[in-house]
Each structure stands twice: as structure tokens, then as C-alpha cells.
Specification:
It is a single chain. The protein is of the alpha+beta class and about 625 residues long. It contains 25 helices and 13 strands. The strands form five sheets. Strands 2-3-5-4-6 form a five-stranded mixed sheet. Helix 8 packs across helix 10, helix 17 packs parallel to helix 19 and helix 23 runs antiparallel to helix 25. The protein is rod-shaped.
Length: about 625
């Protein structure tokens, strides 16, 4: 830390309780009271350096004679600052540092200690030292922190703005270019253990500094001063990513609710290793959060979605303003594809708590994401073909959001208080093309049906319309075909599409098998056209072995499908006995007779199985 020595005389003050006495041998003729402290001094050293003291001593002496008592309770810095002022007036040796220069500068201005009252007076001395302080990052930080004690006077003398300008300039410039000694970052030692001020020396390599080197130092500033510093570095063109990083670091220092694993009952926060202070009050945290949200850069992606969701969750806990929460919801919505499921599970903290998680908040965030996506799609048209989006730059984000929403629905589905319209509305926002597979939404629907057995048949039908049975995987189809919670129509539809899929697979297998037989050379190896680069077969591949493996898998699947179809036929026959029951399926699939259709399907599958067995033999 920089320092400046003033005066040369030995110490001439002694303290007795709340009283300071000058031990020069002469009786004091003036008593100055500052707060609870009393200073027994002499008039001449004071009035010769201070215009204000000269005036009030002269006025008071005319009334009370030779002894006067003065009260300076409003002096900036209080008794500690006046003690240093008194020592300066007596020429006693004192040391200026970054921790006391601001108070002394303000006190000197208050006492009018200008050059008219002695050359090299306190105002000039403190100004000279302040310029030295502003050349150092560490000293500028310390000086700015002490401005809090004398903020009105420091603002009037432009000390605060000068400190902030000094810090902003250094934060926006690579300190390694100028060799500024940054604590914890540039303190590199030589092999002999001696610190090198610029990090350069024999046998040492220059240290590369990260862009976040200043985050921790400024995190100890008050919100008002920190906000002004952020606005200054932003005006100087600092990258939004760096500004956002500093805001995130600062927020985590004073908002314990940002961590999902922290407790709001913990009233302490850690400010440095081994030290902690009391956490700000709830109102102070709310004001801090709203200020942080206002300072965050608007550019998409520079602030992590995890942090934004943490702010949103904390804003709800602290009951922040609706404008603040709406701002955060929109920010999260613009980059929802970067969110994690865990962070999206925001507890419901409303006054009328119905569900465990805040479904309405996620609905608003998702709606905003969809509006942004639609706006982007409108500016860059794309082609939709059979439910698949071609050439769209937003397909990947939309697919990621679809997977996220399906996972979220599966997490909230067990909540018995989750009403059917809310679940349906949230699931219906995602378009069909966004899901390559519908296994996720099927799983969420199945969990919801299990947790809500009282749903009507109509509501079950509406839920199942949210998924596309043609986009279920083999495992999901197998599960759905045996799922008693699904409406019978959906089970039939799953089996129907699975049969179509199987027929396509068998037809494709025969096509491949015929091609393999036609491409066998005279020695039993496979020969491919020279221009067929997409069909490469490794040497030594046995076509018969390939056929046997494929045929075994196909026979197994056909056997399973026969069992499912037989079971389905029995269920349909039972349903046919009820009035009007079969008409539903007849209209849906075009069946004319309730038994002939299933029997025909079973015969078709059996015929295919018989044909496959002949080929395998």
C-alpha cells in the first residue's frame, strides 16, 4: 500500500479516556469536542492552518475570553480524522495511506485548510497523495471503500468518480501490459523467493491473466458504488460476457438463495477465507436482485440460463416486483434450450399454492420461447414435409426444448394436484415435428395417468392425442401394447402401426436378401457394382449367416406380434358385445366385421411367419 509521511516532530499527544491532551508544556486555551472525544489544544497552531477554525476561534474568544470550547461534531471522518488534522497542524509525524486519505481530504476541505493558510497545507498534500493512490488498483479499491464513511463530501469533491474512473480504466485494460501489481494474480516470485513486481525475471515466465481477475476485488463494494463501476466499464466498451460474469460473482456473494442447496435461514455469508458477515436483510436482497437484473447485458447467451433461473427462483422467494420477474422469464425464454431440468423445477411459492412446482411460470417461459422461435422462423422461412422441418436453424433448439419439456412433464406428473388442463396445455405447446421420438411424452402421459386414475375416458383420449403413435420406439410400443392405463383405441392404434412397421421391415429384408443372392460371385463372395460406394461389405462376410441372424430376429418379433394380436382380438370381441362399442373401431380403421379383421390380420402375420420359416430352412 502506498503511503506518505507528513510532519517531523515526535508524538506530543496523550489520550486519557475520552480526552486528548497536548503535552507541549503550555496550558491549552481551546477545547474542541468531536463526538464523544475532547481535544485540549492551543489556538495558534489551529488557526494558522484552518480558515474555519480561525473564524470560529476569533468569534468565540470575543465572547468567552481566552478559553473557548468549540464543537465540531459535523467534521467528516469524526474524531479519528480530526486527530490526524490536529497532528498535522502541530507538525507531528503522521502517515497518509489509502485508508485515511479520503477522510483527511474531506476534513481538510471542511476546515478550509488551503494554501492561504500556510504553504503545503493539508488540502494540497492529500490531493498529491490521491493522485498516487489512483495509479494503483489496490489503493484505488481501498480508497473507494472508505468513501462510504464520508460519501456526501467525497461526492462533492469528485473523489468517488475519480476512484471509479481509475478502476474502470484498469479493468478494461490488460494489467499485464503495464505491470500493475494485482493481488493474487501478478505476484510471481523468482527462484530465490523474491516477488517480481512485473512478473518478469530470470527463469520466470510471464503469467497469463484471466479476464475475471478483478471480480473478487470489486465484490466488496457497496451496491451503489459497484453499480456505478459496472456502468462505467460498460460505457468503455467492455465485453458483455465479462460484465455478466462480474454481476454473477457479485450476486452470489450477497444472495444466498441463488444456490439450490442453501438455506434462507442461514444469516451469514462468506466474504473471504475464514471470515463472514451477516447476510443482507430480505428487503436489501430484493433491492440488490432487482438492480442486478437491470444491469445484466441484454445480449442473448452472455448470461448462463442456470444463473437466470436461479435469479428467477430467488425473485419469487423474495417477492420481487412483477416487472423484475417478467424480465427474467423473458430472458430465460430466449435461451430455454440451454436450461437444465433441475433448474427448471421452481417451487411454487404463491399465496394460493396448488402444485408443488410453479407450472404457470414454466408455461410463460415456454410461451415466450415459442414466440421468439416463430419470429425467427418468419424471418427465415423453411419447408415442412411430412412433419419434418427441413433446413431450419431453430430445429436443434426446438428439439432440445421438446426433450426438456417432456422431462419436466414427467417430473411434475405425479403431483395429484396438477389439473388436467395445465398438464395438457403445457404439453401441447411443443409442435409434433420437434420430437424425433415420442417416448418422452408417452412416459410423461403414462405417469400422469397412473397418478390420476380418476380421469374420464374423454380426458384420457385427449391426453393420448398429444403423442404420435407412429413415432414410438420399439420398446415404447411394446410397453404401450400392454399398458392397461391407455384407452383401448390407443392400444389398437399402436398395434396397427407396429404391424405396418413390421411388414415394411420384412419387405425390406426380402429386398436385401434378393440383392445379396444376386450379388454372389462364382466363389460365393459378394460382388458389388463399382459405383455403389454406399454398400460396402467386409471381406469374409457369410451371406447365409447374415440371413440367419436377421431371420431369427424377425421370427421372434413376428411371434410376439401374433401373441399381441391374439390378445387384442379377444379384447375387441368382448368390446363388441357392448352396445355400439365396435362401431368406434370400425369407423377409425375401416373394419367391416369385428372378427374378420383381426382374423385376417392374424392369418396375414401367420402367413408371413410361415414364409419366413421356409426361407430360413
Amino acid at each position: 500500500m502506498a503511503c506518505m509521511n507528513l510532519g517531523s516532530k515526535a508524538e506530543a499527544f496523550s489520550r486519557e479516556g475520552q480526552t486528548w491532551v497536548c503535552t507541549t508544556g503550555l496550558p491549552s486555551d481551546v477545547v474542541i469536542e468531536v463526538g464523544e472525544m475532547s481535544f485540549h489544544l492551543h489556538k495558534f497552531p489551529l488557526l494558522s492552518r484552518s480558515g474555519m477554525l480561525e473564524k470560529i476561534i476569533a468569534d468565540d474568544s470575543g465572547v468567552q475570553g481566552t478559553t473557548c470550547i468549540l464543537q465540531l461534531h459535523d467534521i467528516p471522518g469524526g474524531a479519528k480524522a480530526f486527530e490526524l488534522v490536529a497532528k498535522f497542524c502541530y507538525g507531528i509525524k503522521l502517515e497518509l495511506t489509502a485508508l485515511n486519505v479520503v477522510c483527511l481530504r474531506c476534513a481538510a476541505e471542511h476546515l478550509r485548510m488551503t494554501e492561504d493558510y500556510g504553504e503545503g497545507n493539508l488540502i494540497m498534500q492529500t490531493e498529491v497523495f490521491l493522485n498516487e493512490v489512483f495509479s494503483s488498483w489496490r489503493d484505488s479499491i481501498k480508497a473507494l471503500e472508505t468513501c462510504e464513511d464520508v460519501l456526501p463530501q467525497a461526492e462533492e469533491l469528485h473523489i468517488v468518480s475519480r476512484c471509479i474512473n481509475s478502476l474502470a480504466m484498469k479493468a478494461c485494460t490488460d494489467p499485464a501490459l503495464f505491470g500493475w501489481p494485482i493481488p493474487g494474480h501478478t505476484s510471481i516470485q523468482s527462484p530465490s523467493g523474491i516477488a517480481l513486481w512485473n512478473g518478469i525475471g530470470a527463469g520466470s515466465k510471464p503469467r497469463t491473466m484471466s479476464e475475471d481477475w478483478w471480480y473478487e476485488d470489486v465484490s466488496y463494494l457497496s451496491l451503489n458504488l459497484y453499480k456505478r463501476l459496472i456502468l462505467d466499464v460498460e460505457a468503455r466498451g467492455m465485453k458483455p460476457e465479462i460484465i455478466s460474469g462480474s454481476l454473477m460473482f457479485y450476486s452470489k456473494q450477497y444472495l444466498p438463495g441463488l444456490s439450490r442447496h442453501s438455506s434462507f435461514r442461514d444469516n451469514t455469508i462468506r466474504v473471504m477465507p475464514g471470515a463472514s458477515i451477516s447476510a443482507p436483510s430480505e428487503s436489501d436482497q430484493r433491492a440488490l436482485l432487482e438492480e442486478i437484473v437491470g444491469l445484466l447485458p441484454m445480449k442473448k447467451g452472455v448470461t448462463s440460463t442456470k444463473f437466470l433461473l436461479g435469479l428467477l427462483r430467488t425473485a419469487m422467494i423474495l417477492h420481487a416486483s412483477s416487472l423484475c420477474r417478467e424480465n427474467l422469464e423473458k430472458r430465460v425464454g430466449t435461451q430455454l434450450d440451454q436450461a437444465a431440468l433441475e433448474d427448471l423445477l421452481i417451487p411454487n411459492l404463491g399465496y394460493s399454492v396448488e402444485t408443488l412446482y410453479d407450472i404457470d411460470c414454466v408455461q410463460r417461459v415456454l410461451d415466450h420461447f415459442m414466440s421468439v422461435d416463430h419470429a425467427m422462423a418468419g424471418s427465415s422461412p423453411c419447408i415442412v414435409d411430412e412433419g419434418q422441418l427441413i433446413g431450419s436453424p431453430s430445429l436443434t433448439p426446438m428439439t432440445m426444448v421438446a426433450k426438456l419439456v417432456d422431462g419436466y412433464l414427467a417430473e411434475v406428473a405425479p403431483d395429484v394436484n396438477l389439473k388436467f388442463p395445465k398438464f395438457q396445455s403445457l404439453a401441447a405447446v411443443i409442435p409434433d415435428y420437434a420430437r424425433p421420438l415420442d417416448d418422452g411424452i408417452y412416459r410423461a402421459i403414462d405417469i400422469y395417468l397412473k397418478a390420476h386414475p380418476w380421469l374420464t375416458d374423454s380426458e384420457r383420449e385427449q391426453l393420448c392425442r398429444l403423442m404420435n403413435c407412429q413415432k414410438l420406439s420399439l420398446e415404447a410400443c411394446t410397453h404401450a401394447a400392454q399398458n392397461e392405463r391407455l384407452p383401448l383405441r390407443v392400444v389398437v392404434q399402436v398395434l396397427f402401426f407396429e404391424q405396418l412397421r413390421l411388414r415394411t421391415s420384412i419387405a425390406g429384408w426380402f429386398f436385401v436378401s434378393d440383392n445379396l443372392e444376386n450379388r454372389q460371385g462364382p466363389h460365393g463372395d459378394l460382388t458389388l457394382p463399382k459405383n455403389d460406394e454406399s454398400a460396402q461389405v467386409e471381406p469374409g462376410c457369410d451371406p447365409k449367416e447374415f440371413q440367419a441372424i436377421s431371420m431369427d430376429d424377425m421370427k421372434l418379433r413376428v411371434s410376439e406380434l401374433e401373441k399381441e394380436c391374439s390378445s387384442m382380438r379377444k379384447e375387441i370381441e368382448k368390446l363388441g358385445k357392448t352396445k355400439g362399442g365396435w362401431n368406434i373401431f370400425a369407423r377409425r380403421f375401416g373394419f367391416k366385421q369385428k372378427t374378420q379383421s383381426c382374423q385376417g390380420k392374424g392369418a396375414s402375420v401367420a402367413g408371413q411367419n410361415h414364409r419366413n420359416s421356409d426361407v430360413a430352412d
